[in-house]
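re: ur question from earlier - yeah i can do the single chain one, its not a big deal. heres the input i used so u can compare w yours
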Amino acid sequence: MEATTTNVEAGKKSGGLKGLFGPITVFGSIFVGILIYTLILGDSQNFDEEGHPVKEGLRHWLGLMYKGGFMVPVALGLFFTVIVTSIERMITLGRASGKGNLDVFVKKIQDLLQARDVEGAMRECDEQRGSVGNVVKEVLVKYREMERDTTLPKDQKILAIQKAQEEAVALELPMLEKNFVIISTIVPVATLVGLIGTVLGMIRAFSALASSGTPDTASLSTGISEALINTALGITTSTIATVVYNYFTSRIDAMTFRMDEAGMSIAATFAEKHA
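and the output i got, formated as tokens:
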């Protein structure tokens, strides 16, 4: 129970320190988006004398993005939020996976338990580290405790080992899934932001056409292309967020499977080795 209590306290401490990651990342990314919109996209060299984007090259696209309106920095902010959160999750899940291959680690634990070397199995957990190593070690601590217990019947001991595994996994999952809500929320929001920017751009384009009094297909085409920049940014961000979310979810599922596999293996070994 000592190790479990320590994990809980560490989790609370970590949660307190990182609880502001989401708001800081979102608002910081939007601020960066505003700076890019103002200083880079709005650079005077991106426009001709009449204020239209230059005709060719990278500066044409930069000027065109600037003409997309005030929703562009918001869309850029959401894009940067996905990138920053993905990097943070990549680092966290990399640490959670531990130092070695998970399949090899689980096999070593099974072999050591078959040889009744619980201490050796716990040393493997210390070397592996990460969430899987932490969970397996918690289960092994309970395994050793049940070996020494002379009061409980065998079926109760097995249930205690299984419960220890479930509790250990429950303690690790919040850390693995932390900040996922940011990415999952951006998936629909980025698309909606892009659509809002597009609608506002279209309104602006048709209003300018109506006020001119004469049809101007060139101006109309330019206005529509500027408006659609928002759609492109929103859909791109949403697509990347969806791919990233599914990728990290599959990684967590794989780690959870290894935790469950190791826990069930330990309980089955106890049932086999102890009368």
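The first helix runs from residue 2 to 18. not sure if urs matches, ping me
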